[in-house]
Amino acid sequence: MKHNFGAGPCILPKEVFQEAAQAVIDFNNSGLSILEISHRSKDFEQVVIETEALVRELLAVPADYSVLFLQGGASQQFAMVPMNLLPEGGKAAYLDTGVWASKAAKEASKLGNVEIVASSSDKNYTYIPKVFTVPTDAAYFHYTSNNTIYGTEIFEAPKVNVPLVVDMSSDILSRTINVADYDLIYAGAQKNMGPAGVTLVIVKNDILGKSGRTIPAIFDYRSHALAGSMYNTPPVYSIYVSMLNLRWLKAKGGIEVIERENIIKARTLYDEIDRNPFFRGTANLEDRSRMNVSFVMDTAEQEAEFLELAKERGLIGIKGHRSVGGFRASIYNALTLSSINALVDAMKEFEERYK
Amino acid sequence: MKHNFGAGPCILPKEVFQEAAQAVIDFNNSGLSILEISHRSKDFEQVVIETEALVRELLAVPADYSVLFLQGGASQQFAMVPMNLLPEGGKAAYLDTGVWASKAAKEASKLGNVEIVASSSDKNYTYIPKVFTVPTDAAYFHYTSNNTIYGTEIFEAPKVNVPLVVDMSSDILSRTINVADYDLIYAGAQKNMGPAGVTLVIVKNDILGKSGRTIPAIFDYRSHALAGSMYNTPPVYSIYVSMLNLRWLKAKGGIEVIERENIIKARTLYDEIDRNPFFRGTANLEDRSRMNVSFVMDTAEQEAEFLELAKERGLIGIKGHRSVGGFRASIYNALTLSSINALVDAMKEFEERYK
């Protein structure tokens, strides 16, 4: 039994893998593989329609927003957001809460002026800056809602007077949000939505087409919105598996149900980190992420030993990112409470061994 | 028994589908799905390394070229090529041999000046223009080697005195080429390389970094070359299935062997088109494609009836593109001669019925 705590691409439900494998042999009893069908076939058009409908239903997306399935991950959105929203010579505001937030700002700065309204780089991104002012002449304000590497998360949409853009790659679909609070939400799929290879964009239609830039069609959100995510050949299989995963989430009871589970999972693990004298969390208490739990031990020897124990217990993917060290348990939607318990048991076992 | 003549995403070998399905359940006996593993895991890094090595071996790619696996298909390359190669205010030359060639030129024209050196739009792209002059001050010359919709193909690399860029989406890996004749080759994978979701780029390193433009990192070929196609999370599964397909091609004997088969397949079908009084080819004889065979009948009634007969015989995906009409049989690497024979048999059957 493996418990996959990997940071992404990450665990998806077993039943999704079963159906996803079957479709590679025979999709919808067509006698054809999902990998060899035309993206213009009725069967696949239905997949795109259902995937979009599931996103709209699960997140209660308002009608005046487009739901797009693109390629290139969040990294491509770092460039597409300013291409679409930042006029030549204009300014965009960014909150710097980690390496990815910082990369997003850096890419935007190639296309215009960027103002970093606040940064937590002074303490290795262990906290979320709470006090900052977004200039009213900014074309938009960008932030990263969950910082995968550091284990911090922003649950409330900041109140700002400019269009609000958020990178939700690692917490989309894990908790209820009010989509209307945002103007553009993007997320690489490979955490809670599906496998690598597809990117979700939810964008309010009326913010588009105002940057005055000449944008190649492939980078213009409007091309994709007009074509129902079929402007060019879409990543067929990644969208199909996302649909299966969204069906699973809906059958489970939707976002509210998974959010309750995620809260319990995170609390169970943080409680053990706070109780067990051999471990301590790295993120500021009030900014702790429900998706990525970062923690360390006192010495490199202990950490090496615990990593070995974890491996023996089938706990994989818990080594921390090099910029934080220690451990990072990514506990996305599909990771079960029993996997959390297996990790907690290993932590208790370590304590027993040395107390 | 289905015979899949679809234009793409298209047929791949049955054994590739079997292995591809197995990996969705259990990849490399890891107990994990290929869909849930980290792209930074050793196992997946090995996949990228092997996929690149297979492309290099099969196409004999010179050492001073990078082999990249990107996202966004050929449509994204329509923008990335001028971003990387066309200086501000510079000029690029394009050959217009069809809708896709024309779209490539249109996207480039958003970033600079484009000169169309010749076009076959006067005869609905049924032929390849042979006489044209590429201006010596062009930053590059771009053409499309196989025109999927019209069934025409350019087998010889044009001799030009500027960097040569080719969209080989629908004939890459189907015939021997001399990579050194080109400076940049790109191809959406979903014909002869693998499933949708990954794009192959083969680029001569020393043509990069000269456009003088500030390019977002995700659109700069150098970012991907430096990072071994791991600048950002790659389309894991699409690359994996491409590797399986390239292994199949290598085991078969490589490009020379598949090229011989492709020549026989195309000749078998064209011979029947030319012999059978009910059918006629649409493309200029000397420009006929080996990948996409376009043909028509005399009346819409005949075409409807043949389409029905084809369906009964398990021949799918042969309806022609709306801009040509009639039929298009896409006969990529994985389509077998026995599928060609099944189509030829149906054509003979139709002839018997009405002669």
From TrEMBL, chains A, B:
Cofactor: pyridoxal 5'-phosphate
GO biological process: L-serine biosynthetic process; pyridoxine biosynthetic process
Modified residues (N6-(pyridoxal phosphate)lysine): K191
Enzyme Commission code(s) on record: 2.6.1.52
Gene Ontology annotations for the cellular component aspect, listed alphabetically: cytoplasm
Aminotransferase class V domain residues: 4-343
Keywords: Amino-acid biosynthesis, Aminotransferase, Cytoplasm, Pyridoxal phosphate, Pyridoxine biosynthesis, Serine biosynthesis, Transferase
PROSITE patterns: AA_TRANSFER_CLASS_5
Main location: cytoplasm
GO MF terms held by the record: O-phospho-L-serine:2-oxoglutarate aminotransferase activity; pyridoxal phosphate binding
Domain of life of the native organism: Bacteria
Annotated binding of pyridoxal 5'-phosphate, by residue: A74, S75, W100, T148, D167, Q190, N232, T233
Enzymatic reactions: O-phospho-L-serine + 2-oxoglutarate = 3-phosphooxypyruvate + L-glutamate; 4-(phosphooxy)-L-threonine + 2-oxoglutarate = (R)-3-hydroxy-2-oxo-4-phosphooxybutanoate + L-glutamate
Pathway: Cofactor biosynthesis; pyridoxine 5'-phosphate biosynthesis; pyridoxine 5'-phosphate from D-erythrose 4-phosphate: step 3/5; Amino-acid biosynthesis; L-serine biosynthesis; L-serine from 3-phospho-D-glycerate: step 2/3
Residues that bind L-glutamate: R40
Span of the signal peptide: none
Compartment(s) of residence: Cytoplasm
Entry note: cofactor: Binds 1 pyridoxal phosphate per subunit.
Primary role: Catalyzes the reversible conversion of 3-phosphohydroxypyruvate to phosphoserine and of 3-hydroxy-2-oxo-4-phosphonooxybutanoate to phosphohydroxythreonine.
Quaternary data: Homodimer.
Family: Belongs to the class-V pyridoxal-phosphate-dependent aminotransferase family. SerC subfamily.
Name of this chain's protein: Phosphoserine aminotransferase
